[in-house]
Fold:
Amino acid sequence: MHKNQNRPGYQESKVGWIPEGWEFSSLGKCASFLDNKRIPLKDEERQTRQGKYPYYGASGIIDYIDDYLFDDELILLGEDGANILSRSTPLSFRVKGKIWVNNHAHVIKPKENTNIGFLCEYLESISYAQYNTGTAQPKLNREICSQIPIPTPPLPEQKAIAEVLECWYKGIWNLELKIERKRNIKKGLMQRLLSGKQRLKGFSEAWETVRLGEIGHFEKGIGISKEDLSDKGIPCIRYGEIYTVHHFVLKTFHSFICSELAAQSKRIKKNDLLFAGSGETAEEIGKSVAYMNDVEAYAGGDVIILSVYPKIGRADYFSYYLNTLGREMLNRLGQGQSVVHIYPKNLSKVCIPLPPLAEQRAIADVLSAADGEIEALEKKLALWKEQKKYLLNNLVTGTIRLPEFRIVN
Structure:
């Protein structure tokens, strides 16, 4: 049953149950397609025509060139590409001003009775899998797109809905900018603190240079296959997770095994530094994550474990250094073609700067605090996006009405 079905003040239509007073139409009746004005340019030609005007494709700006085809406020709707199905990037977006568009995005101009903000939001709320006409390559052709059903509230309500959602977009955009600024600040801080160019207050003792083999001993995890994993049980970490879901310090486990398998596996301990021993590229090889907890957990095969001597160093400090200033050095140790490997005997020879233990702790604490601030903002951003998505899906279908347009019984 549709969530609006038989609700007082709602009527059935071709786009489902919508509020009384709303109408339904189609994209072809709400807007004009300007696809015949598009002109694709090959990469080679664009290279000779670099300029200030955005060159758009199915997923947004892909270049800047010396001329434009449109000077208007329009909606671009991706015509082909994987994002039609995955929706990893927005499929529809508003553009304003002088732009060039290739033949991979429909160019749509709303008609007078349709608010551009409302129409763009509605187009972003729907699933396009049902309209896909491609096989190997997903495609939304113009004929099918023009038949997409569109609910049409009265123009004042369209404008009000668009304004509310625009406020959410601005809030999300500002939060994304804040997160980016925090990341840049942390990046600069890491460069200065981990290189010794900036010393924290109270520290002036000279740093040493040591090999990784001198600060701890190496071991290897024991194979844990995908088939061994479960949704609950004893935590474990597999090598692929080190370069896909973990950053600097292991905080949350994503895999679990049964107690019987744990008894046969390699347990990790507090102050262990875990390296990805295998990867598909040299960039993935050698990425590390520090384990600074006492919770019982285990390492799968191709995880290289450096158990750092607690009287010499801190795994979290080494993780920050080796994943930033020391990253290129580790990438060069990768061996192999289709699958790249790194080995403990090579890792043990890597030289790194070693501050006194107290300074290592202080540096790691400062960087950890910066990480915590960024993570809190990222959680807030994810929540805002979910709330905005919920509001979007319900406002453009009339399931939620803005106060000034609600029907009073």
